[in-house]
Structures are given as structure tokens and as C-alpha cells.
Design goal:
With about 725 residues, this protein is of the alpha/beta class. It has 28 helices and 23 strands. It has a 5-stranded parallel sheet with strand order 3-2-1-4-16. A 5-stranded parallel sheet has the order 6-14-7-8-9. Strands 17, 18, 19, 20 and 21 form a 5-stranded mixed sheet that branches. Helix 1 packs antiparallel against helix 2. The relative contact order is 0.10.
Length: about 725
Amino acid sequence: MSDAICPVTALIRQLEETLGSGRMATPWNRRITEEILDLLKDVAWGRAGADHLPAIRELAGSLRDDPPSSAGVETGRQVLTALSAHEEVFRSHVETHNCATRDCVKLAPAPCQMACPAGIDVPTYVSLIGLGRDAEAIEVIRRDNPFPWVCGLVCTRPCEFMCVRGRIDTPVSIKFLKAFAAERALSERHYKNPPQGPAKEQKVCVIGAGPGGLSAAYYLALKGYGVRVIEALPVSGGMIMVGIPRYRLPREVIDREVAMLQELGVEFRFNTRFGSDVTLEDLKAEGFAAFFFAIGCHSAYKMGMPGEEDFPQVLDAIDILKRVALGDRTVPGKKAVIIGGGNVAIDVARTCLRLGSEEVTIAYRRTRSEMPADEEEVEQAEEEGVRLAFLTIPTGLTGEDGRLTGLQCLRAELVRKEGSTRMSPVPIADSDFVMPADVVIGAIGQRVDNNCMTGLKGLEWTRRSTIQVNMVTMETSIPGVFAAGDAVTGPATVIEAIGGGKRAADSIDRFLYGIPQPKMPPVPVRRGRVAYFDIPASTKMVLKRPEMPLLNIDRRRTTYQQVELGYSENDVREESRRCLRCDICLRCGKCVEVCRDKMGVNALQLGYFDFDHPVKTDFRITAERCITCGACAANCPTGAMQMEDREGERILSLCGTILNRQKLLFCEKCGATLGPARYLDFIRKKTGTVVSVSNDRRICDACARKESAKANVDIMPV
């Protein structure tokens, strides 16, 4: 839970205290205050509409302007002050149905959605995929991310790192579910753009056709603006096109999703470099009113080793990946050594194998556990034959007659330095050796090539040589000029660039309309609350994350065919059922506490809630102990825990996971529901009473009273 208190919740508590104190003596003032309180509760519970806030202001104003009642005047001022000071928070509750502080329990976003830089409503689209409604799932995704298929293949999945299912076994495979839904929706011709807004006179120019620039162009086009995208490369996509190999991200996928922008009327100008081919003044003269820079990090850092400039066989990974993406199939060398441990190092190593290199080695100064590259990518690289040399520090280069022959290295050990939490590699004395190599490729990081931006007077830069922006609005120091993506954050992920582009599009819209910019980051929008599907607890526990089928190893080494073949439809539907629906269950623990501490039953073994009494989660245990008293459901603040009687059974479920079902007993006289036998036994032991039995019949209290009264009259007539 957040330490911050939601202004909506705080105001509700203030009004409840005022009404409970008795200070509001005037009936009229009390009635108005109660009406304000009801409206605020609608806001806190996601029931509010566009008229709620104006209505609250009007009612509060009438209280403030009623001099005879000091309590009314004070209350009116409190409400108006709260609305004014926290206007964005109140509007967010109404418009996005989310509460960032999680005080308004019905509006608390799921951890996966909060972790997504684009704020995608993950639980909703995962549930839709599980129901087979793939096209609807893609509609939900594209409200926050125009490239679900691209991200379904290459996203670094921060949502999965926060997935609560990972506390039980493994996270839900959110990334691959997205890829499946995108491919299915496209194949069935359900992959469509939403309706555009009315055409606007203003035009916006986007510099850079990477994921950040394309995202901004998409959302601006949807708002009705004329958008032109300028790109120095001959293709769109930026680093996802020229930096991610085809075996991970087929070009057809990028082309198809970029084509969706062209359908919206976005104009593309390729082979056009900003600063030389076109300037800001040129674009302003054409009538562009706002500008968005997403130029990316297309330059590599030098390794700083002696001899680096002396050998033409010392290359950088970004340049190789770019040349290969544009059609160059030159073999870099028979023995290639890549320096680095990130995803780029893995990508260029696997690319060298496919180009024809006989030996490919990655030299990394730390150990495998410290590698920033995705574990799956590392494993696939090893399977394909890439060698990994850990605890290896490059120190120099060797060669003969101008040709590179080897990489000079030292062995290292990890030592924790004072004041640091990270282990640092320290060279081992007299451990130097030479690693044979006829090409050395640096993959130690990327930077912004800002040569094209030198003509922008007044543009501020950070110490990291990235563009300085307001991280809420993405506006630079130049009015009307915005920026996002790697040019702002440094080398980052596709989804971070998309999130930045989306925020920038909204800010550009505000700028062109003269609307004040927000002062806090946007709260992720809950796009829907899809009903969960029933699943037995035993099934919920045994469902496992499926293994991704991969292309045959021999074909992987020699072709650029996509390596990850994707899940089957059955795998996808089953995987979506593993979701715990954290958009509904907040893991507040009230159900466990009341069952354990109040009722003394302790039937809910839900260790993933992270309590002071940690236990291994097992939904199946509940059926062994639960008496279906309903105390957990009655105390659940979000309705995640539910108990209902249907078809002669009492069923307890948590977000659709059926924890227990007990056969109901009924009054043999009137047919009224008595409850399950286990519950009745529990009540008997607790109270010393039992359901009345008359003439060997189980009857309800009402019928028992009638029978008792009749018997008394028969014994002692009036």
C-alpha cells in the first residue's frame, strides 16, 4: 500500500466525521452534505460520470454561501479547497477509474498495469484472450500501445516481473499472449484503427520513425492532426527495424503495424536528415505548429582500448546490425569476439553465426547472473553455438601487418567495493591471455547522435548528452518542441519509447489547444472490468506456463527465420486462466485475517498475499477446511471473494477460482436454505445449539417456533 492518502478518500472521511459529530445541526446543510458525500463515494468507487464533479462544486458552493451555519460554511470551503488543490486527482478518478494511492480500493490498478510504461490494461486484455475474444483484446491494447504485435515479440515484459502469479510458480506469459492475439486478429481481418477525431488545421512534425515517434504520430493522427514523419533511414521503425534482427522480429510484422499509421493519413519522408536536409525554420514555414523529436541512440560508444583505431576489423554492434538489416550479408570474420553482456551483444553474436562466422565468443567482465541480457536470449545463443567467456576484461588488441589477430584479456574476480551494492570485476594478477579473433565487435552501449540538433538554439541537454525534458509532459526547453524515447532516456526499451510517445502526443494536443499541462504523471487507465471465468482450484494450481516451441537448431544457425514459433491456441487459452485478476483482488488480506483470527478456521492458504505468516499458496487447501460461513466474502472490499448459492450448492470463489463447494441442506417443512452440513456443525459447536429437529426432520428456526408453539398450546390449552 502507498503511504500517500488519496484526496478523495481523505475528503470522504472528513465529511463522515462532520456528519457524525453532530455539528451540522441545520437539516438543510446536513442534507446537502450527505448529497456531496454520496457523490464523492461514487467517485471513489468508479461510478462517477462527467456531471459528478460540477455537481459537487455547485453543492459545496451553496454550503459555503450559507452564513447562518458556520459548520456548513466550513464544510463547503473544505470541499472546494480539496477540489481545487487536487483537481487532476479527482478528474483521474472519474476519467480513468484508477486510484494511484490504492486508497480507493475499487480503483486500485493491478501491479502488471502499473509496471507497464505505456499503462496497458493487462488484466482486461489477458481475460479477453482467455475468452477467445482476441480482436477485443487488441482494441484494448492499442488504446495505449499501437504496436501490440511488435511488443508481443520483443518487449522486455516489465509487467511479467511484477506479475503476482510469480509468487506462486511463474508469471503469466503476458508477452506471448499479446503476440498470439495480434496475429490472430490480423489473420481474421479484425485488426482495425479506431475512428479518427475531426480533422484539425494544425500540423505536427515528428522527427524519427522509431517506436516513440511512430506512437506519437499514431495518437496525434487519431486526434485529427495532420502528421508528417521525417526519417534519416530509408525505412521506418528506427532501432526495431535496424537494431533487432529478423529472427526475433520479422520485418513483415513492423511493416504491417506501420501501415496502420499510413491508413490514418500519416505522411512519411525517408532519407531525410533533420539539420541538413530540412531545418526547424523550413518546417515552420510549411505551417507545422509543434514538433516531436524521437531520434534514438544510433551511435555506439568507443571501447577505449589501445589499438582500437589501428585495425579496421574493430567494429561496433549497432553498425553491423544496421547494415545487415538493410541487406548487407558480408561475413565480419571467421573468429568473432563481442565485448558486452546486453541484448545487443547477444543479437550481434547470433547474427554473426548466421552470416557465416565459424567461432563466436562473447567476452563479459562479470558473471552470467549479472548479464543484463534476457535469460531466454542467452540460452538460445548458447544452443546455437555462441561461447560465453565470463570474468574476462579486454585490455588491448594484437595484430600483424594491419590485420587483427587477437584480443588481449585479463581474468577477473568479483569484489564488493566499499560503499557499493554491486560486485565489481577486479583483474587477477598475471592472468593475461590472448583470445584469437579476426574481428572484435564492441557492444558496450549507445548514445544520442546530436549532430543534427546543433542548430536548435535554446535546447537544453543533460550531463548524459540526452535531451532535457519535463518527464510529465515531455516538453523541452523550447516551447512547442517535445521529445521522448532513447534521445531522452538513453538506450531503453521499445515499450518505454511507446509510453513516452503517447504522453507527448497528449501534451502536444494540450499545447496546441492552450490547455494547461498536467503536473503529475498520468495514471494508467482501466479500460474495462471483464468478468472472470470459473475455474476449479485444482486446475488453477496445476496449470503451468507452457514452453515456447523453437525453430530447429540447424535452421536457426543458417537462416533469419523467426526462432520463437509461438504458442498454440490451446496453450494461449489455458495460460490466460493462470491470471489471478489482481485488478479485482488487491491482496489486502482481510479475507485471510477474518478466517484465521476471527473465525478460527484458517482455511485460506494464500501465501502470495505476503503476510506476517508466510505459507505456500495452495488454493486446494480451502476445500479441506472451509465451512462456507461467508465471513471472507462479507469482508472483501472489492468483491473479489464471493459466495453464492446455486443448483443446490454453496460455492466460494476468489476471482473465479472455485475454492470450495458444499451441498446445501434445506428445511424439510418449508424448503428454506439452512446451509451446508459443515457450517451447521460449526455453529453447533460454537453455540451449543443445532438446527432444530422435529420428528426426525431437519427444519428451520421459523418452522421450529411454529411447531413449538403448537405443541405448547396442545399441552397447555389457553
